[in-house]
Each structure stands twice: as C-alpha cells, then as structure tokens.
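Two folds, back to back.
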Amino acid sequence: MKKVLFLIVFSVLTISNLFADEEKNPKIRVADLPGLRPNFKMTFENGEPQDILVETTDGRTHMLMVGGFVHNPNKFPMGVLYGLDDDKSAYIVSNQKMEDIKRIEVGLRDERGGRHSLEWKNPSHTFNKAFWALNVVMVGAVIYDMETTLYTFRKCAEYKEMVSCREGDPLLRPFIKHGRPAIYAFQAAVTAGRIYMAYRLRKQGKHLRWIVPTIVAMGIHSAYGSKNLMVVWKLDL
C-alpha cells in the first residue's frame, strides 16, 4: 500500500511540476539555421536583450552583448553576433553550432523599463552522466525488488503448509501469478514513465524536483527488496 501511495503522490507532483511556470515565464528560443556555415538564431520573448552570456561545452563563457551593445564582435572567439535589422528580439550567432552551446543567460528590458533575466539550457545536454547514473541505479533497485519478490514467492511455495505469501502492492498483485514477463512489463512501463518525467523536469532546469523523487524511488525499491530477503531468511531458519 505504501508503494501505491508513493506512486500516486510522485505522479501528481511530477506532472504538476512539468508545466509549472511555463506560461508566465518569458522564453528564449534557440534554433540552428540552414546554410554552408554553422549559425544559430536566438529569439527573445517579452523583452529586449541588454546582456547576453553564452557558455560553451568546453566550459568557457563569452559575453556577446553588454548594456545593449555587441561586445567586441571582431575579437569574439566563438563567432559573431548579428541583429536582424530593426527586430531587437532576434539575433544570429555565426560560425557556431548550437550543439556546442551549453547554456545562454540573457538580461532583458521589458516595455516598462523593468529588467529580468532568462536562462536557456541546451536540451541536447540533458542526458548527462549524473542523469544516467541516478536512473541506472534506480532501474537496478527496481530489478532487485522484482527478483527478490519472485524469489520470495518461490520460497513461500516450498513452505506453503507453514506460511502463505501475498504481494503487498495491489497494482502489482494481478501480475504476480503470470510470472516474470508480466511483472517486468508492468514495472518497465512505470519506470519508463518516471524516467521521462525526470527528463522533462531536468530539461526545465528543475533539478531538485527530478533528483529527489528518483532517489526516493530508488530507496523504496531497495528497502522492499531487502524486506523480501528478510522474509526468505526467516523461512529458512
């Protein structure tokens, strides 16, 4: 029952966080442009850029614009920033691939003269080592839980005259009698959903909101797997 409650709470909180603040926050849109040379275009919503900082995948940072003026375009080491005629909401960076950009930080001035900052993180870098490491460990915890569950039921069958076993998770319970393929299919769907929601949250920059649920899921499956082994250990005494 505890696993069911966790799954419901996890799903509700994560789905609600996926779309939180998306509508009220201004955005930066970045896209590659076709052509012989690498170029990408930045479009800013709800404001005019005053400062533009770009961090590349090699860890260097570059100021493209300072105080509304292009910063040393002839000396710019990663490319050149160009405005699009009178449109102050769109700029092109030439001689630079979008895939080499890690993040873009922009200071904007709105129509009322107010200032606010935006940050764009390259979604192609969402699947980094930390993301995969945590999710691989979580998948390992899920497999540990499933295999110890199956092992426990096999042991219970050997001692059926002394004890009867029952799956505590009502969502998983109908799949137990169908064996390993059914259990793995069910847990694969649930785990894939968790990883996808974690990906969406990380892509939006909500790091704690994807890390904490992933670690909690890892801990719950590990705890239940260990609990299964304790049941087997008591049966063998």
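---
second:
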Amino acid sequence: MGEWCSIDAPLHPMNNPTSFPKSGYDTVNGLVFFRRMLDKIRLHAAGRLPADYNLGKGSDARMCRFLAVNYTDVVARVHGGGDDGEVLEWCFANGRRPSDEEIAYFNAFMTKRGWRDDASEKLAASKAKRGWAHRDDIQTGFDLQDAEEGRLAGVTTADRGTHVSRA
C-alpha cells in the first residue's frame, strides 16, 4: 500500500458512499487530514471501511508524527468516544500542540503532496492506472482520494463551496 492507496487497488464501488472517509481537505480546528484519519478509524471499527485503506501508515503516520502521538493511542482514544475536536485536544495534551505557523506549513505540505514534488511520479502512475491520466483536476494525493471516493477534487464534504487552494 502506498501513501494514498495501492496503485493496483480497484476502484471502489460507488453504491455505498457512506463507507468512504471524509476528504483530506476537511479540517478540524484548522488542521487538514485529521478528520479523515479519525473517520477511517471509526469506519474501520464499524466494519464499513474498504479493506485496502491505509490505517496508521502513510498520511496517518505523518499526522501522528506531526502531533507526536502514537497511532494506536489515537485509535484507543477515538474508540473511547468524543468528537473530532476533543480527540485533537487530547492529541495536543498527550503529544504536542503545533503553533499556527507549523500548522500552516503542514497544511500546505499535505494539500500539495503529489504536486511538483517527490510524490508526483507516483500520483501520475496512480492516475494512469485508473484511466485518469487526462484529468488535470487531479493534481494532489487529496485530489486523487476525492476523485476515487466520488467527490469533486479539492471540494470538502463539509462545504462544497470552499476548498484549500494549491496556489
């Protein structure tokens, strides 16, 4: 499995969109991807997450390193209940609380991953494998996830009128 998903993974059937986690573009208290990671944990616990999704690896691991928390501890905290904001506050209390500037840099890195960086080749291969080499709207890993899961690239599930700029 790669950072986004396996290049060889089949496209997921669109008949059960509730089995897909939130977009990586969705935020919790200004932090991208955290909501998606928690949603994957909850969907997996409910048996509703497709089997080929990364859990605790790739971007999940990157998020946990950024917050200085152990993924298995985050899973236990999520299973203990609470909303996304409460779990994030728990991470801050048990790991580290990044500054606003650190969060801005992290968000910029995460939302642009695959766009003109060392992951660009992998993203291009993933798009080609799916027959999407022509899709100029898919420029990042988050865009690829959104496309695979039936969302418009770059548009959050919380508010389809806004998205994080790649500029």
